[in-house]
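In keeping with the milestone schedule agreed at the kick-off meeting, the structural modelling team has produced records for the first pair of proteins. Each record is given below as a sequence line and a structure-token line. The laboratory manager (R.T.) confirmed that both were archived under the project's standard naming scheme.
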Amino acid sequence: MTSPPCIRTQRLAFRYDEEIPALNGIDVEISENAYLAIVGQNGSGKTTLAKHFNGLLRPTSGRVWVYGIDTATVTVGELARTVGYIFQNPDHQIFCASTREEIAFGPRNLGLCPAEVSARTEEALRAFNLLDYADIPPAVLGFGLRRLVSVAAVYAMRPRILILDEPTTGLDWRSACELMALVDQLHAQGHTIVLITHDMRLVAEYCKEMLVMYDGRVVAYGTTREVFRQIEDLRQAQIRPPQITELGRRLAKWGFGDVLSVSEFCESYARIREEHR
């Protein structure tokens, strides 16, 4: 880790019932301003782990700290000031009569004065290009816009950590790229970003770090490039690297090596071609 952890877990275990453990002794540290992907198959424990970071779930045993505060000692509302959670389905968050009211709801519940609530709401509407929809009920907007509203509503609360559960599910590639460009901006502003996703192309192109879960355990954790080299760990977790990464690996003897995106592949090709002129 290059900076102090903003989230740390120690022997974290959780059970939804007595028979099946969902988490088995998780020890992880997440650095401040990390850009982390948590990946794994359905039932691997990735969402269960992330919900411990904002107190939606409490450990069966073990401990979780957020900026040094034991999450067992504070309420979900208190943690929401620091950790924002955007659910996979935006309809699980949206309920207000207008987009403006939806975005204002969180800051208002933080106890902020009306002027600050209004300022944050207007800023979020501008940042996410939602001004044209400010007075429209978010429930009638298209899925991509509802996704933006759900992210903007959490952004307006100014949490230092943002967790996005399958943020691009249901979006076409253009809409997904537009959303991830906004997430990139939030990371550049200093936010810690945690993505829960099945999309390995998304992980390779955007995330700096990668945590792989299988059967309630962490089987790999490191930089995205390092983890994609751990073939056996990925195979155990039933995770396949992006096709362009696999192609680069197959062409390693010609000088391609580790590539995470099409642009990296093209750069490698241009370099190799120049070297052989």
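The second protein of the pair:
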Amino acid sequence: MVHQVPAAKIQFLPEDRAWIAERIQEVLASGQLTLGKYGAAFESAFAKFCGVRHAIAVNSGTSSIEIILRSLGVEGKKVLVPANTFFATAAAVVHAGGIPVFVDMDPQSFGLNPDAVEKKLTPGTAGIIVVHIGGIVSARMPALADLAKAKGLWLVEDAAHAHGSSFQSVSAGAFGIGGSFSFYPTKVMTSAEGGMIVTSDDRLAEESRIYRDQGKKSFTENAHVRMGYNWRMSEPHAIIGLKHLERLPAMIADRQAIAAIYDRKLAEFRNLHTVPVPANGVCNYYKYIAVLNEKRDRRELKALVRERYGVSLAGEVYEEPLHRQPVFEKYAAGSLPISEDLCSRHICLPIFSGMQEEQAHQVLLALQEVVG
């Protein structure tokens, strides 16, 4: 029987599980299950990790984007969003009262191209959301930040994929006014469910804390000053996240080791190419992206490598660009050819912490036979 290689796998070492369980017992006994000392510790550690002044823990990455946008006052304003991102990036704009404007992607990084961004700017544009697809921080980030500043726009990072990634020693989440992280179980690190807002802007941090707790002026006052929601992170989730954050550098190193094996072998392939990490960049390899030179039926390809070789390819980033999603039909503005093309031609190879070298070679053998 062919050894199975999963698309992804969460790693919690036995000693980490014991540490987490002990502290969950502690908070269950204390009765303080939200906005307690472990949430505060997680926020402090994550802010330091990203090189920013503030981190605000919330219940999901989706919430973290919406809170940032509400705090920035996007109601009735246009927000530029990459076409190739997850539903939540654009949905947060809509939920915050803004108007998403979809922008075509940069083929070199799967991120945004400053030229494409500039063409979409109008007097009604409030800001730009960038997404670090697969954990790659584009070499164009400084240019995007400069463009936003020159045009008087804010720049927000959806860094849901990019824990620990950077470019020119600037961490993902620290390029703009605010960054949003997800700790969903498929991510490089997890808190089971949860998200984090990072910023060095004091006002944005203050507003975010208000919005996450039902719009209350403070935790101890029932004076509601914003239309907030229950977006808090619980103490058990913060405990899980705190331990996984401690393990994050080692987990990224595991992924980078597998990526290096892929890089060496895939350079010999004729029918696909990889998406490079820029010089002076660090990638956490949330995804390892490879682009097929010719379009193929991905469903058939994935079934073949799974059934014949025991290899499960990971989910795409993304299978269909957002301007083609039915829910965003009214915001669509014609064709975005690069996104439409590359969304249809890329695959993502299995990569996760704890993955073994022989598993990487099994993936490469399967692709050599099926793609070549």
